[in-house]
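Take a specimen:
=====
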Amino acid sequence: MFDNYDIRYKIAIIWFLAFILLWIIFRNILPLKSMNYQLNNIQASIEQGDWKKADQYTEEFVHNFESNKFIIQINNATEALISFEHTVGQLKVTVKNKQDSSLEYVGALREMINLVVKPFSGP
């Protein structure tokens, strides 16, 4: 009825197309560009000493992260997401307290964002 090789090739092609489709969907849904833009704004505000704007941009960053958290969780390993959430919390507190160490957390988030927000980033 069916040749085993013919079915294997069809399954392999369907699996490959499904993977490409998932990668495109995650690439378009995940907020990598907007989060990087917000981190740039936070960093510039801190360097200029404008803590009020830095706090505003941090709130926007946290809101963007929280509103896309479910999609980010689907795409990621738990360890990377927990570290990212922890660093977001540290950034929020240090900006509210107007501490220069908040630049360290901006740098850490900039490094971690590729592990957390890119589609199928892997460890």
Observations:
- Residues 63 and 121 are 22 Å apart (CA to CA).
- The chain has a mean pLDDT of 89.
